[in-house]
Amino acid sequence: MSRRISPLRSWLLLALDGGVAAAGLWVALLLRFEGAIDPKYLAGVPSYLLFLVAARVAANVLFKLHRWSFRFSSLTDAARVVSAGLLGTGLFLLALFLVEVRIPPRSVVVLELLLSTAVMGLVRFSPRLAWLYLAEHRRWSRNGAVRTVIVGAGAAGELLLRDLQRSVEHNYRIVGFVDDDRGKWGNIVYGHPVLGGVADLPEIIRRYEVGKVLIAIPRLPAARIREILSICAELKVRFTILPVSYVYLKERAAAPPLADLRPEDVLSREEVDFSTTPEFRVVRGRRVLVTGAGGSIGSEICTQLARCGVGRLVMVDINENELYLLARRLERQFPTVAAVVAVADIRDKGRMEAILDEVRPQDIFHAAAHKHVPLLEACPGEAVKNNVLATRDLANAAVTRGVERFVYISTDKVVRPTSVMGASKRLGERVVQSFARSSRTRFCSVRFGNVLGSAGSVVPLFLEQIAAGGPVTVTHPEVRRYFMTLSEAVGLVLKAAYGDFGELCILDMGEQIKILDLARHLITMAGLVPDVDVPIVFTGLRPGEKLAEELLTEEEERSRRVSERILVASNPPPPADLMEQLDELERAAAAEDDEQVLTVLRRLVPSYTPLPAAAEDVATAARPQSQERRPAKRFN
Fold first, then answer.
1. How many CB atoms are located within 10 Å of the residue 280 CB?
2. Is the separation of the CB atoms in 268 and 222 below 8 Å?
3. What pTM, to 2 d.p., does this model score?
4. Is the dihedral of CA 355, 357, 358, 359 positive or negative?
5. Residue 411: which of 370, 381, 376, 380 has the closest Cα?
6. How high is the pLDDT of residue 253?
7. Quick check: 258 pLDDT over 80?
8. How far apart are CA 92 and CA 54, in angstroms?
């Protein structure tokens, strides 16, 4: 609720303006006549004062100078003061002309205008200047104040500084700006100098003992952010990518030490808003079932579907705790969406069929899967049961019940897989492909790489290790991965699903990022020095891991692009006896015969080549050709 300006304060301000005008006129007369006012003008002083005070008060009321905000006055308000001064002088001269009173000398009129306008401006701006000075002094003298530099001396940086100056609740002691525009170097922005360019940051941080860097450049490219982090990697300084309003900057003492880290800021990715795509309109009112709804990808699918106005949302997962939390969150955020939960193991064929019979979904998003590469190397039968056989059974149930769409969430690890996880997910793609060619249900596999910050991924692990003081564990100095943000991945999944583009959609992941660089950036963003404050330890490639992932096989490279970030791939048809061979795979998994499971996997996925047991040897794994027969493929 806004505060109402006190009428008493407005009257006092107008009275003060009248007194200022009267004093200004008297001083102007004394200056003009060097202390001895000409009698012919002295006789007109009472009339001058009457008309001048009335004119000044009227002009100030017209420009609302009596409704002044002492704390938030700006350059626009200064223009109002000047305009009111000019109008007041004009009204004063007009009144004298109309009543035929001798007009004072022009020099007196000009001097009074300058004096009155200056004093009225001083009265209005001095409280703010004094408050800013006291607030700045209080911040500089406060214990725990952090010397801070702002990257970007443009409009966003200026607005950010103004927000910071108006607040006494933060502990930033702004020492200046850095900006790559050489024309700004040496300029003063709201009392703070532009100290140099971004390349000068390390020297500026050392010279001014800076502890915090606020990046205030809208849409700063991720490559530029990574460059800033790299050149400051040897310095103990915290980085924050900030919006321009301080309300988003406020730090809470109870927040975890790394709560402000934004790993997605180092990715060259733009957000994908599914609600702005043509496919968005298809979702509204539909009945949709999501498996693996408690996981990172599944829960984001549920969230975006709810945001799109899905008619009924059925969330299936075996993790009842995560399912419960998701349901509570969606109920709070989207109270009009009919969202129901179903605790179920997707491997339980009878249970899943009963759920489908009850809810009759139009669309199914199959996100449930075992995905941890090293764990599945030790239990290939479980990978097959969950990632292959459960997918087969769910797809078959969907076909027999007339489900319109079935979307299978795949992974880049299916391309020339070296792990059980990759091979099982590749076989899942082939199962979906088989059903797509023999049923009316529109089947689609959507393949993409790592999702930044998803449960069990490398980023949460790194953040936990950094918070604990290290060491940060990296498998190999040359290992690289594709990354995309969770919202982007799911936005593209929904676009691919409801665009009905084809059997296999592959998301453009951009460039691969070296995991070692990512670890160093996260340590630097935490205000620590890599290999000094937080050691980095190389643990060796884990069973089934590759140095670099791929998105396309040789056959898929001849695919067509259907949107800026989605490619539709075409594959040779699956074996005619695929379902019979899956029965053999099922028997081997049920018998806990891991050797037979692997044998059938190799037969069904010919590109599956398990890595040698010595893959954990960092020195050996450092030779890329020992792990990859050919360079990683990506979009051109």
1. 19
2. yes
3. 0.66
4. positive
5. 370
6. 35
7. no
8. 8
